[in-house]
Design a protein that fits this description.
- The protein is an alpha/beta fold and 253 residues long.
- The protein has a single domain, classed as 3-Layer(aba) Sandwich (Rossmann fold), CATH 3.40.50.
- The protein is 43% helix and 14% strand.
- α5 links the parallel β5 and β6.
- The longest helix is centred in the middle third of the chain and has 29 residues.
- The structure holds nicotinamide-adenine-dinucleotide.
- The site of nicotinamide-adenine-dinucleotide has 29 residues, from α1 and α4.
């Protein structure tokens, strides 16, 4: 076990899969008390695994964080478990893809609920408790989709949502300054996860994705989570309102 998050309590959303699961493991290894959650009923398995490895983690599932009541339930659960929290890691989201002629408004609006509202509700519920704690770190997961279009994938709803995530995070940073609350985004490129593995099975898809990158490999969950660990820790105490690309150089190319 390292100690980069010793003494800190971290709420991590979407710990039932992908990067959220990797984050629960890494944050616990670094000494954080982890509050996980997911809409998936089997998400408790990650908490069982973390505790078996000697870490500290509780987990709330199933909970739908795109609803205000879900976010409030999560904050109450975290307060009950640990009395407060220092880190909000907004990882959970669900993206829906369709090209412009096929993107109906219902799916567009659903994407905003499950990618933008999901962050608003948790930050809204957590904010007074972060202030009471004397500050904290908010990490919101955006995407390269916030900054560039894609000819290969219908991203009109997803790009609108992730653009909103980067924009609203600057506002959290701005209003949070007086309360020692920092807020930053990470913009991952193509990362291996439950949402991308089906795409990777399509012939030629991985090769095309890698061709857009400077670093010629698929990103792994820990590439993103290591960045989140830095943003969660006091090592980044002078960083707020920033967006860090973890994309193998896609945006530089
Ligand atoms: N994988 C990529 O290539 C990639 C690229 C850029 C950004 N991202 C972002 O990274 C984050 C994590 O994605 P991932 O690839 O690990 O996906 P994932 O599907 O493996 O994990 C997301 C988790 O969030 C949970 N979740 C989704 N909606 C929820 C809700 N309403 N309430 C509670 N839990 C909910 C899911 O059940 C799942 O366990 C997301 O914000 C995603 O948009 C991913």
């Amino acid at each position: 076990m390292g100690g980069r998050l010793e003494g800190k309590v971290a709420i991590i959303t979407g710990t039932g899969s992908g990067m959220g699961r990797a984050a629960a493991r890494m944050f616990a290894r670094e000494g954080a008390k982890v509050v996980g959650c997911d809409i998936r009923p089997d998400a408790h398995e990650v908490a069982d695994e973390v505790r078996a490895a000697g870490g500290e983690m509780v987990s709330l599932q199933p909970v739908d964080l795109s609803a205000q009541s879900g976010a409030e339930r999560l904050v109450a659960f975290a307060l009950d478990a640990y009395g407060g929290f220092d880190i909000i890691y907004n990882n959970a989201a669900m993206a829906y893809f369709a090209f412009i002629p096929d993107m109906d408004f219902e799916t567009f609006a659903r994407t905003q609920r499950e990618e933008v509202d999901i962050i608003f509700h948790l930050c809204r519920a957590a904010w007074p408790h972060l202030i009471a704690r004397g500050g904290g770190s908010i990490i919101n997961i955006a995407s390269t989709a916030a900054k560039k279009g894609s000819a290969g994938q219908g991203m009109v709803a997803h790009s609108a949502a992730k653009g909103a995530v980067t924009a609203m995070t600057r506002q959290y940073a701005t209003e949070g300054g007086a309360h020692r609350i920092r807020a930053n985004t990470i913009s991952p490129g193509m990362i291996r996860s439950a949402q991308t593995e089906p795409l990777m099975l399509q012939p030629g898809w991985t090769e095309r994705a890698i061709a857009r990158q400077v670093i010629k490999r698929i990103g792994e969950p820990d590439d993103v989570v290591a960045t989140a660990l830095f943003l969660a820790s006091d090592e980044s105490s002078f960083i707020t309102g920033a967006d860090i690309a973890v994309d193998g150089g896609t945006m530089a190319n």
